[in-house]
Amino acid sequence: MKSVLLLSALLLSSPALAQWKPSEKVETYAISGQSVEALYVSIGEKGPVIGRDSAGNGRRAIAQTNFKLTWQRDYQTEGGACVLKTARPKLIITYTLPKPAAKLGPAVQARWDAFAAGLAAHEKVHGAGIVDMVDKIVAFSTGLTVADDPGCTKIRAELTNYLDQLSKAQRRASRDFDKVEFGPGGNLQKLIAAFLIGG
Predict the structure, then answer these.
(1) Alpha-carbon radius of gyration of the chain
(2) Could you read off the pLDDT of 68-100 as tens digits, one per residue?
(3) Residue 60: which of 41, 73, 79, 74 has the closest Cα?
(4) Distances (CA, A) of 17 to 48, 80, 88, 166, 167
(5) Prediction pTM value
(6) Res 187 pLDDT > 80
(7) DSSP string, 102-120
(8) Judging by DSSP bridges, how do beta strands 81-100 and 23-31 pair with one another?
(9) SS3 at position 152
């Protein structure tokens, strides 16, 4: 990536970055059980499928964050150059979380509430990472200029390359975050232990 292109993106005034907001929604999947153990087993059986093992069986997660990102871009030619005047994102982040299908007893409900709040907070970190990625795309894109590109084809290639790099970095950061959270002494490991064992 040419340093001139990057510099032009960094020189953008901050108000340009504040003109969009993500849309967030929560979807739930029903789990059954009246004990913490039964609820946790149900999560394992009904959680969102995030991949397949070597035998082709679905690997399930406790919760999941997905997003849909679309763009409105205004490419204009100036002389022989192509300029990306505006890049407006439409970002929808969807958090998928478990929800008991039936009313729980007071003690189990209290433990569930703490567990559910911790799960939601974890997924919100994933959401913040996605928003940060989109902010970086907006900063890079708006005002991006490529010389000798009257058909605005080179600029699209530059943009696609940058988006691919950012997307890979976001996925890597998300995996690294989960590794720490689920690792020894991690927040989610502690959260699950507190839910199942108490304390």
Answers:
(1) 22
(2) 999 999 999 999 999 999 999 999 999 999 999
(3) 41
(4) 33, 27, 10, 17, 19
(5) 0.84
(6) yes
(7) SPPPHHHHHHHHHHHHHHH
(8) parallel
(9) coil
